[in-house]
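hey can u check if this looks right to u? its 167 residues, i copy pasted from the old doc so theres a chance i mangled smth
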Amino acid sequence: LDWLIRVVAELNKKGKKCRLIIAGINRNVIMENKPELFKLMEIESNIICLGNIPHRECLDMIASCDFSIIIRENILVNRAGFPTKLSESFGCGTPVISTPSGNVSDYIINNINGFVTDDFSLDSLKKLIEKVVDMDKGKILNMHYTTKLENKLRYEYFNEKIKKLKE
């Protein structure tokens, strides 16, 4: 999260308008645990903390965003699970920006339904978000349409695979 806050603050400082909406954490938690980030957030009005919100509101928020972002280090504990935020974002038709962790690259196809950074680093994330901020809005809308239409995480896709296993 600290990487995202730093990247968004830096991009806005450069005149590249970018907004970060954070659900699940309120400003007080950041102020108590990362006061240096809280100072950035106080200066930067485009970083918004919603705190804990109902799941339905969270899904509505995801659907209204250009992208959702998942940052997970590619370590054993993260590879053992699958980020539910990926399936939620795809279900909302929202493309995903992610670091390469586990098998997310099997589902996120660059320029189609999101982007995967080159590696797990602040620099790689920053370069990718800078690229995305400069994208044509029509391209982003097309990615939303494609993400919703060709969602590889829809349950029907798995039902077909299970049927084939039974045969």
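The longest strand covers residues 47-51.
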